[in-house]
Amino acid sequence: MRMDMLVRDINVFNSYFKRFIKGNAAIKDGKFYYIGERELDAFEPDRIVDGQGKYMVPGLIDIHLHIESTMVTPTTFSYGLIKNGVTTIVPEPHEMANVFGISGVKEMIKASQDCVADMFYAIPSSVPATSMETTGGSIEIDDIDELMQTEDIICLGEIMNYYEVITDPDCKTNKILSHIRSRYPDLIIEGHVPKLLDLDLQKIINAGVNSDHTHQTVEGMDARIAAGMFIEIQEKSMTEEVIDYLKENQVDEHFCFVTDDVMTDSFQNRGHLNVLLKKAVQMGMTPEKAIYACTYTPAQRMRMHDRGAIAPGKTADFLLLSDLETFEIEQVYKKGELVYESARPYVQEMKEEQFPEHFYQSVKLAELTENDFNITIPESLESSKCRIINVQNGSTFTSETHDRIEGKNGQLSWEESPYGLIATFERYGKNGNRAHGLITGDVLKRGAVATTYSHDNHNLLVIGHNKQDMRIAANEVIRKQGGVCCVHDGKVLSMIPLPVGGILSEEPMDIVSKQVQHLTDALKSLGYEHYNVIMSLSTLSLPVSPALKITDHGLINVNEGKTVPLMMSDEA
């Protein structure tokens, strides 16, 4: 019997028993044909691979991530995935959709077609994430129908505006959910429901949302699994208590590991989904259980019944490892073809201008002056009690604090206060909106930073302690058609140009990773204290992440789903 390849003498991970079984694997037409003890007497392989007792593991599958969070193109992202053993992903391009609408989604899918890693796309469901921000594009019901008819779509991406779903039956998100349930009843619906419990949680599930990937606690996981919700564990949720819960309870079918957002330097230097797998093992989870949660359960969640396991008829995506504990990858195969080998050079092939011309001209904002960073107050007020965003290391959640700030000549004297200024400017040329706030905590203590990489609206976000540095940082980003710029004492310390939609670079992975690391170091040198500095910065404009954030509409009380004024009455 003719076979394309026979891999001999390997320990094959059997997903159905969750254990390794010694044997051989025959591959034909990119799929596993036979797993067992038979070998050359039964098959005539074109190629023979001597497994030398190594471990054969299915290609890893990540079902919740955003390519744009890594600031690179799908081609570059695929290059990074393969060497880390990730052969299939489900990206949701809601960042690009916020900039360009449906064309952003289509162009990301188009840019993924020739990638080595398989990319099955989710339709962004929450663009914009709320009605309290201005974006370059939106995704409406008609757009969803068009994508369902013209593209290979695997699920509806995360429902982010959970507050309106449970409080406003007539909101846009509920109309989308109703449309999906009636017209595409079998489409998987992904969720984003931080902190919801009891009746509110079950309202979300009744709306059709039956997964959650946000920061987990044991109490939250227990409530979600009990109600039939699937849990997607990202690294920030991998606390000792959470891992112990997953180890000690019979919940293997109800969770998987996902990355969600990976910064470029971490991707380049640490890895991807394999990092979470290794970390789980280091925290006491058996390798078999950790592998299962990175292969079989994510495949089942997304109904990818052709992968996630090594068995007859399954796609021959697999890794060869010499050690389970370290999970060091020696070889990666995609559809039975060798695509990565640790002992050989692995070079990225570069592609330029992968997107339409207008994708490189998306920042339609005139250069700013120092006056743009003034906060006007009534001249009768000598001081004002203000809301202040408090950044906390260890989380992208913020808290709200209050303090009295002095004023002079009708202007809030924020530069003389202990607080920084945070300002956002609508950059799509739609309405010229802008908003100002104050910020404190584990954030920039001096200098300034400006970015168009600001989730999810990607307007221009500027933080600083003096107007001159803020102006320089903002204008550098505007001139470069997007990016992140850090300034101190009138000097640019670090800059990441992001010319594709103001959020992506076409530079290779190693270049962008060095730029990200350099920027991170610069921000830390100015006092920013956070486990993920750039993600903390970029989510300060995310109005679905508690508790106080800012958009071009103003300060957002996320838990109440409304804008709130910077200045408060003395009675408040």
Beta fraction = 25-35%
Poorly predicted regions: none
Q: In percent, how helical is the residue content? A: 25-40%
Give a quick account of the main beta sheet: strands, pairing sense, barrel closure: 10 strands, mixed
Our count of helices gives: 16
Going by helix content, strand content and strand pairing, the class is alpha/beta
**Large-scale geometry:** globular
Mean pLDDT: 96
What does this structure look like?
This protein has 572 residues and is an alpha/beta fold. The strands form six sheets. Strands 18, 19, 20, 21, 22, 23, 24, 25, 26 and 30 form a ten-stranded mixed sheet that branches. Helix 2 packs across helix 3 (102-112).
Sum up the structure in keywords.
ten-stranded mixed beta sheet, 572 residues, 16 helices, 26% helix, eight-stranded mixed beta sheet, globular, alpha/beta
Quickly describe the structure.
With 572 residues, the chain is of the alpha/beta class. The chain contains 16 helices and 30 strands. α2 (94-100) crosses α3 (102-112).
List the helices and strands and how they pair.
Blueprint: E1 2-14, E2 19-28, E3 31-36, E4 44-50, E5 55-58, E6 60-65, H1 74-83, E7 86-91, H2 94-100, H3 102-112, E8 118-119, E9 121-123, H4 141-150, E10 153-159, H5 162-167, H6 172-183, E11 188-191, H7 198-206, E12 211-212, H8 218-226, E13 230-233, H9 240-248, E14 255-257, H10 264-269, H11 273-282, H12 287-292, H13 296-301, E15 318-321, E16 329-334, E17 337-341, E18 383-391, E19 398-408, E20 411-412, E21 420-425, E22 434-441, E23 448-451, E24 460-464, H14 467-479, E25 483-488, E26 491-497, H15 509-525, H16 533-538, E27 548-551, E28 554-557, E29 562-564, E30 567-568
Parallel strand pairs: 1-4, 1-5, 6-7, 7-8, 9-10, 10-11, 12-13, 13-14, 18-22
Antiparallel strand pairs: 1-2, 2-3, 5-15, 15-16, 16-17, 18-19, 18-30, 19-20, 21-22, 21-24, 23-24, 23-25, 25-26, 27-28, 28-29
